């Protein structure tokens, strides 16, 4: 017998080896010529399968095929429909699905006849795969021609064919509104498939029914009520879907009732009854989904939570890690809103602290921190410390947040808990982990005044050995703000000055600023701090030198003006605080009249005004235009619980960059140049409802002797164009006169344009009644006073 050498690869090389590594496109395309050889296709179907696999591999790796190459390969693959080999036929279906979007639509349609023939085949494997491929290449115009075959396939007795048809129907429904209208006619077939004895068919049928009816709340309610009462669903996946649909209906009803679930409604009673009954299902997935749905019900009472919590408690003793993790995660979420409902699980949860799965152990300890009593804090902290080094940073961050919440809950334990945070702060860890600890300590210092001094000392010790510049600068900034107000501010000077000596330029600059704040707030320390700051006047970094120069100059002036004496003339101690006229406190501690972002926008507005840069008028805060601060309410995410929510077509119609100059449109109009510089611009005021055919907003621009009213008009009608838009005003004061108007010539759909009016007035409160007239768009009004 002939022997062959055996190649043994090292374990590392064996894991990295791929049979398709280093494939070249030209070589693979050369191999594709086998598709045109009928004899080779018939005798070597496995070789054809391998070639198609290589082709799909290089495409998946990002290799692009030219149009000619793609057409040649595509038509070569279509010749493989002649083969009766099941594996090769499945590879053909897969290839057509993958390249359908890349090929010319006219070329893809050619295979429709072959696919339709397979869809009517006696071989169920061909029928199911042909339907799936047709869902990728058929549009609404061709769907009507094969509708009859798909409807027959939906009610087919073979589960593979039926599921394929149902999934394809779902894809058709999402592809276009025209296709969706055709799929809606298949409700009866989907209802029939829902009674199938096959579990996967039931699941796909229910998904399609919900997809068709999801915008009809009454229809969804009837579907859910019918299925939850008759118990006809045998599929665990279908039952899970039904639980989610039920939960969503209950959430929608609660939202309509201002976030409170009306337990007396028929829907709420029937829904809760179904969820509670699902807790006795034989499948663990269904039981967990029902328990989670009960725990997440809006406004649920503690007694209604009990069944779900009891089931989750039983899951905690499961031998399967996935079940324990799911139960622990849900109980942790429940503990945030109803900790007393989870207290009865504490004994089982404590056992999981030592679980080998650190994700489960982390959830267990954070849940105990939420539900435990004050007397158990010390014991829990010891248990946490024992495994902190064994878990990843992402889990450590979760524990830090839980400890922060525990300090707020039990302020009497703040020394122990902040000590724990400071200990892990000095251990190894990444930036996000250290940042979470620093943020937690700073939050606690701001929330609980008793923690301020202890927290400051811990943070000072941290920056002595910190590798993160960003954290060091943040902490130094905070020490400069809070340290001078502590009973013994001098104790922090050493920590700050060490950073001036040992750190990089960014940290040195922050340390210089912190020292300057101490000097401004604590007059008794000014001489010492001045000496320290003078050592930085020759620093190699420009920023550090500039800050030091400013601080030294300000402190020297303050010392010469108000030299601090510890005792007054009578021998009584003098308060160690700056006087009301202290220049250092004013220059170094008082904030700017506006934020830096407002200052930037005001300067941009000032520079945009005609002739502003050539003006002899000195630039100061009084001459800058006032920038309105508009707080934008956060947009509520309606899709989080309502998948049927749709954004308004007008959303963002008037959206502009946050730093945009509101007076830019004014300065761009030559007719308004003589008015001068805008002193103030108001936020937009809505003049119409947002649902009207045209939406109008008004912005008031205040000049030295004029008021310009800018009306922005949004046309929302596709078939209408507004021309020559003007505004008509009714004024309630005799001193107001209209001195000019600029109409908008044209306003097309989805665009907002503007018109202006100018008035002469004295400064006085006045009211305007306005109306818009058009053949269509927006207008500017100006007023003189």
UniProtKB/TrEMBL annotation:
InterPro entries membership: ARM-like, ARM-type_fold, Clathrin/coatomer_adapt-like_N, Clathrin_app_Ig-like_sf, Coatomer_gsu, Coatomer_gsu_app_Ig-like_dom, Coatomer_gsu_app_sf
Coiled-coil boundaries: none
Domain annotation Coatomer gamma subunit appendage Ig-like subdomain: ranges: 663-755
Record localization: Cytoplasm; Golgi apparatus membrane; Cytoplasmic vesicle, COPI-coated vesicle membrane
Topology relative to the membrane: Peripheral membrane protein
GO terms classed as biological process: endoplasmic reticulum to Golgi vesicle-mediated transport; intra-Golgi vesicle-mediated transport; intracellular protein transport; protein secretion
Entry's Gene Ontology molecular function annotations: structural molecule activity
Clathrin/coatomer adaptor adaptin-like N-terminal domain boundaries: 25-557
Superkingdom per UniProt: Eukaryota
UniProtKB keywords: Cytoplasm, Cytoplasmic vesicle, ER-Golgi transport, Golgi apparatus, Membrane, Protein transport, Repeat, Transport
A matching Pfam family: COP-gamma_platf
GO cellular component terms, A-Z: COPI vesicle coat; endoplasmic reticulum; endoplasmic reticulum-Golgi intermediate compartment; Golgi membrane
Functional summary from the UniProt entry: The coatomer is a cytosolic protein complex that binds to dilysine motifs and reversibly associates with Golgi non-clathrin-coated vesicles, which further mediate biosynthetic protein transport from the ER, via the Golgi up to the trans Golgi network. Coatomer complex is required for budding from Golgi membranes, and is essential for the retrograde Golgi-to-ER transport of dilysine-tagged proteins.
Subunit-level organization: Oligomeric complex that consists of at least the alpha, beta, beta', gamma, delta, epsilon and zeta subunits.
Sequence similarity: Belongs to the COPG family.
PANTHER family for this protein: COATOMER SUBUNIT GAMMA, COATOMER SUBUNIT GAMMA-2
This protein's name: Coatomer subunit gamma
Species lineage: Eukaryota, Sar, Stramenopiles, Ochrophyta, Bolidophyceae
């Amino acid at each position: 017998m002939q022997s062959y050498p055996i190649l043994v690869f090292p374990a590392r090389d064996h894991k990295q080896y791929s049979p398709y590594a280093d494939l070249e496109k030209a070589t693979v395309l050369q191999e594709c010529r086998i598709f045109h050889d009928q004899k080779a296709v018939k005798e070597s179907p496995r070789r054809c399968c391998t070639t198609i696999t290589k082709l799909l591999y290089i495409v998946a790796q990002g290799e692009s095929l030219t149009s000619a190459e793609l057409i040649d390969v595509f038509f070569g693959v279509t010749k493989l429909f002649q083969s009766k080999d099941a594996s090769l036929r499945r590879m053909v279906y897969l290839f057509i699905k993958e390249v359908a979007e890349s090929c010319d639509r006219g070329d893809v349609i050619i295979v429709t006849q072959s696919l339709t023939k397979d869809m009517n085949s006696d071989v169920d494997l061909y029928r199911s795969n042909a339907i799936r491929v047709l869902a990728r290449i058929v549009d609404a115009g061709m769907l009507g021609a094969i509708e009859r075959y798909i409807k027959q396939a939906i009610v087919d007795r073979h589960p593979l064919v039926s599921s394929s048809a149902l999934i394809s129907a779902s894809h058709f429904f999402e592809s276009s509104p025209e296709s969706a209208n055709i799929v809606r006619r298949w409700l009866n077939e989907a209802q029939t498939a829902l009674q199938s004895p096959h579990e996967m068919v039931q699941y796909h049928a229910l998904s399609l029914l919900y997809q068709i009816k999801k915008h009809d709340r009454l229809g969804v309610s009837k579907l859910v009520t019918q299925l939850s009462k008759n118990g006809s669903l045998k599929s665990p996946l279908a039952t899970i879907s039904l639980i989610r649909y039920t939960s969503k209906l209950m959430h929608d009803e609660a939202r309509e009732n201002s976030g409170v679930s009306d337990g007396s409604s028929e829907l709420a009673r029937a829904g809760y009854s179904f969820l509670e009954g699902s807790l006795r299902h034989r499948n663990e997935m269904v039981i967990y989904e029902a328990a989670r749905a009960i725990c997440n019900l809006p406004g649920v009472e503690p007694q209604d939570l009990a069944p779900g919590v009891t089931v989750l408690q039983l899951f905690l003793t499961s031998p399967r890690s996935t079940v324990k993790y799911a139960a622990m995660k849900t109980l942790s979420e429940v503990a945030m809103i109803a900790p007393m409902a989870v207290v009865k699980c504490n004994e089982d949860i404590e056992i999981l602290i030592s679980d080998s799965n650190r994700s489960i152990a982390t959830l267990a300890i954070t849940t105990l921190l939420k539900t435990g009593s004050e007397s158990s804090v010390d014991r829990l902290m010891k248990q946490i410390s024992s495994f902190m080094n064994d878990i990843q940073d992402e889990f450590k961050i979760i524990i830090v947040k839980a400890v922060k919440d525990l300090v707020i809950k039990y302020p009497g334990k703040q020394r122990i808990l902040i000590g724990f945070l400071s200990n892990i702060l000095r251990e190894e860890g990444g930036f996000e982990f250290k940042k979470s600890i620093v943020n937690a300590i700073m939050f606690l210092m701001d929330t609980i005044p008793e923690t301020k001094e202890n927290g400051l000392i811990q943070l000072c010790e941290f920056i002595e050995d910190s590798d993160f510049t960003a954290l060091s600068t943040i902490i130094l900034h905070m020490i400069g703000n809070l340290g001078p107000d502590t009973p013994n501010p001098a104790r922090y000077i050493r920590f700050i000055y060490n950073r001036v000596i040992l750190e990089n330029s960014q940290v040195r600059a922050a340390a210089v600023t912190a020292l300057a704040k101490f000097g401004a707030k604590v007059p008794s320390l000014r001489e010492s701090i001045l000496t320290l700051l003078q050592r930085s006047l020759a620093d190699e970094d420009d920023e550090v030198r500039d800050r030091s120069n400013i601080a030294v100059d300000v402190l020297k002036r303050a010392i010469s003006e108000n030299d601090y004496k510890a005792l007054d003339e009578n021998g009584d101690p003098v308060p160690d605080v700056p006087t009301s006229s202290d220049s250092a406190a004013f220059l170094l501690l008082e904030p700017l009249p506006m934020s830096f972002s407002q200052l930037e926008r005001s300067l941009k507005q000032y520079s945009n005004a005609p002739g502003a840069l050539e003006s002899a008028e000195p630039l100061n805060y009084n001459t800058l235009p006032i920038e309105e601060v508009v707080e934008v309410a956060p947009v509520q995410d309606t899709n989080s619980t309502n998948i049927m929510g749709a954004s308004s077509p007008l959303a963002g119609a008037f959206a502009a960059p946050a730093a945009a100059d509101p007076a830019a449109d004014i300065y761009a109009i030559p007719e308004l140049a003589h008015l001068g510089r805008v002193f103030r611009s108001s936020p937009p005021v809505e003049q119409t409802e947002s649902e009207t055919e045209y939406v109008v907003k008004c912005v008031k621009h205040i000049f030295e002797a004029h008021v310009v009213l800018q009306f922005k008009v949004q046309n929302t009608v596709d078939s209408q164009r507004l021309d020559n838009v003007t505004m008509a005003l009714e004024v309630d004061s005799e001193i107001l006169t209209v001195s000019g108007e600029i109409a908008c010539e044209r306003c097309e759909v989805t665009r907002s344009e503007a018109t202006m009016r100018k008035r002469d007035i004295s400064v006085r409160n006045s009211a305007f009644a306005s109306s818009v007239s058009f053949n269509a768009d927006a207008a500017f009004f100006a007023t003189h006073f």
